[in-house]
Fold this protein.
Amino acid sequence: MSTAVNGAVKTAVKIAGIEFKNPVMTASGTFGSGMEYGEFVDLNRLGAVVTKGVANVPWPGNATPRVAEVYGGMLNAIGLQNPGIDVFIERDLAFLRQFQTRVIVNVCGKTVEDYLEVVERLSDTDVDMLEINVSCPNVKEGAIAFGQRADALFDITSRIKKKAKQSVIMKLSPNVTDITEMARAAEAAGADALSLINTLTGVKIDIERRKFVLANKTGGMSGPAIKPIAVRMVWQCANAVKIPIIGMGGIATAEDAVEFLMAGATAVAVGAMNFVNPYVTAEVIDGIEDYLRRHGIADIREIIGCVK
């Protein structure tokens, strides 16, 4: 093990040949495209900004109410509301390119063709990587999410890889029996990296009104309560595939992030805690550097996957 000299530590990591200054990213859907957080966080400090999901046409999202607090986190059924790829390129991407940070665009759709249209539109843009949200319901398959069946995941991954100019990250759904089966399917289809976990499906009921709290009835659970599940799934996938993993799910502190790294993640994404503490990403970056110094570790790569 190399030792940190004079407190200097290296935090750079590589995913699919692309170097990130540090392993801390934003989780899609929790940071917009960074415009809302500019006064709280220096975007230049982040390893990457991962954008909110972008579709081929504007999506209005679900009916309200669509967010509910629960113990240890929140449920959301936003429905991937977004202005569509045209506005994204003209407004959001133009904004992000002011900063010296990597840009990863999250892509969503209702059919494979929807995804492919967005991927092709992004081919000639200055985007570093694509993150494919396969937790979207596939309208042609009875609204079963692309990421809930290995054959559907293999198909969409391989078709996107044939069209994409950028490296492709497949964002896995935890709402499956065996997450490693999905990880292997994505890897076999040519995915360059994986990100996990997406939200867990949950329900909250208002017992006084005897109704579901969310208009959509179900929502995606995120926040600190899901972290042990997320760490377990990252660890399982890191031992099942050879491609890099971006870990997420309930990260609130640098200690949480280090857990994911030790479980085998090359990078981490901070999500729901951005709503609670808009400074959290910078605090996690500082805390990771402090952890490495306190333990005399010169290079962050020494702790990635160190727990077997």
User: Anything to note?
Assistant: The radius of gyration is 18 Å. Helices lie at 85-96, 112-121, 150-163, 179-188, 227-238, 254-263, 273-276, 280-294.
